Amino acid sequence: MSQLTLPTTVLMPLDVELDADAAEQEAEDAAARLAAAGHPAMVECQLTADILTAHAAQYPHDPQARDWAFEAVERVTVCAYAIVEDDPERITECSRQAKGERAAMTLDQLESEGRVTPQRLASLDTATRELLEWYGAPFPMRWLFPPEKNVHGRPVRPRVIVLFHGPGGLTIGLLRILGVDFDVIGIDLDHGAVATANAAGFTVIHANVTDLDPENPALQDVTGIALTPPCGAFTGGGLGKGRTATAIDTILPVIYEASAAAGFFPWQDSPTGYAPRTGLSWAEVREPLGQLEDSRAGLMAEVAIWPLAMLARGAGALEWVMVEQSDKLPAEIEEALFGELRNAGWHTTEGWTLDAVDYGAASHRVRRFMTAYRGPKPFVDLHPAHPFPATTFAECVGWETGRTILTRGNRPLDPATGRAKGGGTRSADRPSTCVTATIYGWADSETGARITQDDIGRLVGFPADYPWRHVGRGEGIRTKAQQAADAVCPMVAAALFGRILGIEWEAKTRTYVHGLYEIPISPETAANIRAAAYAVPMYTG
């Protein structure tokens, strides 16, 4: 009987087979790395792997250092295959992750060597500077480092970001009327509004809020965030597509998902009180908002996304949130936003409907304002102790009393009636109705003299010499009027920030209003206003 001969592979020990497979895989990986050698993304990944491997060797007992090094080495191979397979998305992501880790290591090293002063930043070599500028972009490199602190451990110049900044109404209220020295950066998508705000001396970045990363490392020491999303989807004068049941049912789940994505979804069985982060990217969280008929309505979700993401990244630096929106904002959306902010530790939330006329403006502007605080309830009253002087439209634009405003302007004629569509006439001897983009056509019904952009700005609360700008063809008469129509009244902003920060705002705002509208006052009244305004210390934290 002949002996049975088994195949060689059956007789080989299992560990030999595994070694053979591993050798084959390593050969394939090496071939991929060789084929991808020299590609910029490959160079970036390899550089980061070398740095983290050296770091792990320096700290052999640090398991986190070993993990970082292992992941960095693995990323080199992943990047190589992405290059060989021509996968641009994976290539970009590998390079971005590697570069980000290298920047974070550089940041840690600089901070370990002592406080990073402006002088130290100025002396950085070009390569390091470019790396850190990339890491914090579009925010300034200095924001990657903690701000200078006072003896109480509070920022000397607190950092604030203003999303949907516009031409600068909020920032005038904070920096010019209250007179605090804060480090404020705005974001806006409108080229003209950005140009106007920058010309006024503010720092505003042209960008789409939804394209930016709310967990940017440059935001980890920001103290406050103000958001003024476009109100067109909610106002009573528009189509109101943000107020429909369908829109509300689309927006609410995104607000709740933002909380879970940031790691603030309550879970009683967790040691932290929150469920682990879901792992969804912010783009994935926002994705359902693409179903909305009016995309502007979906921007209210940013009121949850940005503060929650910043809190997750900054470990509690963010103290307060302020929001402005149409007074027709659905109550369900407001309560959902407040609910998620409270879950994350902003235990005090407040909401008001305010009219700019009550704060000295020459035009009505009724808006809904929401605030949230991580500290105790503010003590400064938001409402004026005494009524502000009422400035009429005529007084604001320099007309005589008894005039009538022609609001039709150059509107097209209605073929059925032969009259202009919309508009009408109204007395100029009372405050203006809410300023809209069509106000640039308003004129004196007797003389035909039209109001100017300076007039429009002053109606809202901006100084007469405010540097309104337009980017694009033509003079931009309507677009500059639209900027003023979209802005927050500076006097209302001063009152809100005064309450948020614990600063006496009323006397300072009265001083601003009297100067803005050139209201004659007695020497005693002027002295009392000045004394009240400047007897109160500035914000000290």
Model description:
The protein is of the alpha/beta class and 541 residues long. 43% of the residues lie in helices and 9% in strands. Strands 3-2-1-4-5-7-6 form a seven-stranded mixed beta sheet, with helices on both faces. A three-stranded antiparallel beta sheet has the order 9-8-10, with no helix packed on it. Helix 10 runs parallel beside helix 12 and helix 17 runs antiparallel to helix 18. The N and C termini lie far apart (97 Å).
Summarize it.
This protein is 43% helix and 9% strand. It is built from 19 helices and ten strands. The strands form two sheets. A seven-stranded mixed sheet has the order 3-2-1-4-5-7-6, sandwiched between helices.
Q: Kindly state the mean pLDDT as a whole number?
A: 90
Radius of gyration: 29 Å
Number of strands: 10
Question: How far from one another are the termini?
Answer: 97 Å
- What percentage of the residues does DSSP assign to strands (E)? 5-15%
| Structural class assignment | alpha/beta
Net shape = elongated
